[in-house]
């Protein structure tokens, strides 16, 4: 599989060739959970943030397919966790929306910059509070998300968790301000 990819590229195969629905070879490798093929394509310069016709990048496909290993591989290879599609939902929101603690923690661990990691932790805390994800809120608080962080409208996790008494109780128990 990998040797065939190496051979095809050596013979001039183009990494940016697309299928009818806009998938590149990297999209296809991710769709079929082929980590070795994805690694080889990345090594040869495959464009990690390309979108197919459904506006999905390879890392978004990995998330949708519950493949944390491929997600991390793509994030470490510099997939844009901030905003892969310009006006699309930031990738960290997509990861938080899965409700999968492992995915979010592994994605956060690919970020070296402490300030950036903190920003994304806080953003994920707000998102998971708003969506009622008790486990994710708990884990984010455990790893240091700021309970008083707020979104652009000034809303904190406590405010956003208004529909979820269990999350509100947890946030209050952990010191969230009612101001």
Strand-pairing-aware structural class? mainly alpha
Shape: elongated
> How many structurally independent domains?
2
Strand content: under 5%
**The top level CATH class name of the largest domain:** Mainly Alpha
- N-to-C span: 58 Å
| H and E order | HHHHHHHHHHH
Percent range of helical residues = 40-55%
Mean pLDDT: 88
Q: Output the number of helix runs.
A: 11
Q: Flag low-confidence runs.
A: 84-89
CATH topology of the largest domain: Serine Threonine Protein Phosphatase 5, Tetratricopeptide repeat
CATH superfamily of the largest domain: Ankyrin repeat-containing domain
Number of strands: 0
- As a whole number of angstroms, the C-alpha radius of gyration is 19 Å
Question: What characterizes the major β-sheet?
Answer: none
Topology:
Layout: H1 2-10, H2 25-31, H3 35-43, H4 58-64, H5 68-76, H6 91-98, H7 101-109, H8 114-130, H9 134-142, H10 157-160, H11 165-173
Pfam families: Ank_2
Keywords: ANK repeat, Repeat
Protein name: Ankyrin
Provide a descriptive summary of the structure in words.
This protein is mostly helical and 179 residues long. The protein folds into 2 domains: 67 residues, Ankyrin repeat-containing domain (Serine Threonine Protein Phosphatase 5, Tetratricopeptide repeat); 91 residues, Serine Threonine Protein Phosphatase 5, Tetratricopeptide repeat (Alpha Horseshoe), CATH 1.25.40. It has 11 helices and no strands. Helix 4 runs antiparallel to helix 5, helix 5 runs parallel beside helix 7 and helix 6 packs antiparallel against helix 7. The protein is elongated and about 65 Å long. 37% of the residues are buried. About 3% of the residues have low confidence.
């Amino acid at each position: 599989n990998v040797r065939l990819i190496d051979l095809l590229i050596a013979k001039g195969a183009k990494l940016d060739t697309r299928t009818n629905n806009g998938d590149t070879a990297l999209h296809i490798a991710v769709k079929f959970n082929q980590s070795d093929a994805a690694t080889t394509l990345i090594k040869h310069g495959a464009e990690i943030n390309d979108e197919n016709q459904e506006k999905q990048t390879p890392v978004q496909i990995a998330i949708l397919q519950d493949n944390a290993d491929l997600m991390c591989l793509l994030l470490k290879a510099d997939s844009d966790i901030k905003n892969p599609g310009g006006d699309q939902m930031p990738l960290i929101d997509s990861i938080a929306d899965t409700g999968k603690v492992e995915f979010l923690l592994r994605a956060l661990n690919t970020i070296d910059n402490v300030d950036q990691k903190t920003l994304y932790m806080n953003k994920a805390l707000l998102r998971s509070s708003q969506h009622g994800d008790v486990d994710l809120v708990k884990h984010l608080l455990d790893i240091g998300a700021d309970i008083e962080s707020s979104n652009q409208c000034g809303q904190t996790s406590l405010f956003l968790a208004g529909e979820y008494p269990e999350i509100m109780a947890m946030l209050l128990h952990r010191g969230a301000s009612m101001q």
